[in-house]
Amino acid sequence: MLHYDFMQRAFLAGGAIAMIASVLGVYLMLRGQALMADMLSHVSLAGVTAGALARGSPALAGFVVAVIGAIVAENVRRSYRSYSDVSVAIIMIGGLSTAVVLMSLNPGVGRSFSSYLFGSVVAVRQTEIGLIAAVAVVGGAFFYLCRKALYLMAFDEETAQVRGIPVRLVSLLFSTMTGMIVAAAMPIVGVLLVSSLIVLPAALAIRVAPSFNAAVGLAMLVGVGGVFTGLSASYELSTPPGGTIALTLLVILGAGIALKKAAIKISVLRGRSRRISRNEKLV
């Protein structure tokens, strides 16, 4: 499998984007913005369509539109502070409606979009690898340098602002980073399933990890493991990589939660048995 160049590129790109996307997912969940990744993936579809119609680079156009959509979403979110989901709905409607209208201008464009919708290991070229590598490096530097600010802002932006954190600037940079990561992940998992790579590893990590740092590390491990397993299964079964990776991550999520519940039950039963044995000794 790995003796094919396209599979080597897919594993390299998938591993890099899985690590940075998983870290992003932890912060999105703590901020209550898990749907933002899904919203930006749909917005990027408008950019992909526009790029194809203009006979340019659909991936680059999708990248630019996703970043712009993230910045607009941040501004709309601040206009509806009490209704945070409104910004997601507004931007998603705008992105999807634009994509549909643009596709209607050239029906042939819509029929050739399966690789962007569901991902394709063949679609990962050197250009995409360079883009993903750049996003991973920039994202890693951003999350490392702003880790304390992002952590405080995830729970209370007003408290973070009182402590001297430039909340508006950091939030804008975070939204921009989100758009970049979502767009960079499109070649691997596709527009429709890119949120699975961001949300599912973080969902498991936050559920079972004992601390924030442990949650970030576990999310990265789950993300990379899910991508590698999904790509391998996709190659063997000839299935779309995006759907295969998403299903793999769902299985990992379900198994992890089940193991966590089983561990809790076992600890409770052990506690009861110890109390019973102590009472019997007293008697």
Record the SSE blueprint.
Layout: H1 5-30, H2 35-53, H3 58-79, H4 84-105, H5 107-111, H6 114-118, H7 126-145, H8 147-155, H9 157-162, H10 167-189, H11 194-208, H12 212-237, H13 241-282
Percent in helix: over 70%
Count of strand segments: 0
- Calculate the terminal CA-CA distance, rounded to whole Å: 66 Å
Specify the oligomeric state. single chain
Q: Which class best fits the helix and strand makeup?
A: mainly alpha
Basic shape: globular
For the residues shown, what is the average pLDDT?
Answer: 81
Instruction: Determine Rg (CA atoms, Å).
Output: 21 Å
The number of helical segments is 13
The helix/strand order is HHHHHHHHHHHHH
Strand content: under 5%
The poorly predicted ranges are: none
Largest sheet: none
Give short descriptive properties of this protein.
283 residues
